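INTERNAL TRANSFER SHEET
From: sequence group
To: structure group
Subject: Putative tubulin polyglutamylase TTLL2

Please process the attached sequence and return the structure record in the designated field. Keep the field labels unchanged so the import script can parse them.
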Amino acid sequence: MAYDHDAEDILKPLVFRLHESVPEAVREVLLERGWSEFDEQEQDEADWNLYWQNSPFRMTDHRSIKPWQRLNHYPETVRITRKDYLARHLKRMKGIYGPSLYEFSPMAFIMPNDYVKFIAEYTKERQSQGRKPSYWICKPVGLSRGRGILIFQDIKNFVYDCMVIVQKYISNPLLISGYKWDLRLYVCVTSFCPLTVYTYEEGLVRFATEKFDLGSLDNVYAHLTNTSINKFGASYKKNKEGIGRGCKWTFSKFRSYLRSHEVDDLLLWRRIHNIVMLTLLAITPSVPLTSNCFELFGFDILIDDTFKPWLLEVNYSPALRLDCSIDRTVKKRLLHDIIELLNYKQTDTLRENKGAGTKASYAGRTHIPLTTPGENATDDAPDFLASRQESECTATSAVQSLLEVTGGTFKKEAIGMEKMARTHPRKTRTSQLRERMNRPKTSSQSKAVSKSNQLSGARHPAHASVQVTHWLPTTELCNYKLTIPPYFLSTKDKRPFPRVGDFVLIFPFNDAALEASRNGIDVKSIIQEIHKLMNKQLPPGQQKVKKRKDYLTFR
Ligand code: ADP
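Return from structure group:
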């Protein structure tokens, strides 16, 4: 017990800093975990461990980051989170790597620039005999939550007064009991160099609240799946046949539904993961080299009636507001798992810094490099509208990634989409202790403690020694599970954790992919690896038969 006693003596809560627009759930979770909130009056700029805001940080924030601090955004990720930028990047990638890989995003035209091209495509379709004219969806690039969206078939109904993208409307969505739905998939990038990507196994299925009907294109409750729209629909609170009340399911419920209809959904998830990787690769080389960041994205995926997943958009700061019990189930756990993924942990130097906390005491603090550098309102649409604006962060960061990843053989069994043993050391002994000791019994108590600390002028020193590590040891060591804290492992063996809570590592997926993303990013080699992976995943000919059968069981 001497260890516990010592630890109690030195362990201080981790400190979070939130911008005022950040949803309350983030604060709730961090307080539940025993963290304390940054006090600008009392504490020094260096005294926080995690800074969370819904908008991008300035490049100066990135440059002045301390080794024990983390920011919840990378610079330049707006390149995939603004509709027009995403369309442009995916078009470019399709041009380089071919449509067989990059055919997951509906054909898109950016207006007004692409007006002539759009008219040419529209006219070509109209003139081709026996071909049913497409439906189109027009979306303002600067808006979110379904605002300003127009669906049309005849160009005479197409009007716009701002910058928009016109996208082919997926007019054959896979319906559940006649209702349209899409998937909000959470993706966390813990590092762009080397690229390290996790997808969250739990998520939201977002339903339209009136039955899908191509005869009523202006009925937003039938064609849009945004919660911000559907919660105002007349049927929102009604018990809809096959769907229930409200407009959301969890992925767990969705999986059970698929399995009850004898649909093997593994292939579907693999295809979705490929979409995530291929999308992120479009911007990975242009993300400035910055350390100590992570990014949570919300990928909106629509599945059509041939089981093909389509990427509709990528959300910056996906909505973390808790609007209903399903949000509470999914998003709170998601937030807990994000903190787990960041893996704050103490090192021995915390002991050396015992008593630190005043502005003066931070001056002489030892900066410890991280072993690795490392995430939007009601609708699961962005809380942050600036995500739709041109990012001001264009300069390449002077902050050099302190990352040094070395390693031997990638253990196949440590990765993969099959269910794995939970090898993540959920909490290191010290961080576990610290969170436990600092965890309030109730959130009201926590607020009271936090308040009383503020009133009494107590300071929460930031943890100069908090390090973040994401790389798992080799499988042999994984087998020790929780008995060996990861920071005892040599850097040589560092590997990303294959699983953290419900986060599953999807990139890197093999040695070659790891190697190609390590020292600068070799996109071409990675794409080749993804291509091979896709070929293995999809035995030719098998998919069509299955898809048709699955489709039929769904109707
Ligand atoms: P916003 O940022 O305004 O939410 P989205 O691109 O997410 O814009 O579109 C809103 C909704 O419109 C989606 O959730 C989906 O239901 C529907 N939608 C968008 N694009 C398409 C498309 N190409 N085909 C079919 N439905 C679409």
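Handover comment: The mean pLDDT is 77. Residues 411 and 475 are 7 Å apart (CA to CA).
Transfer complete.
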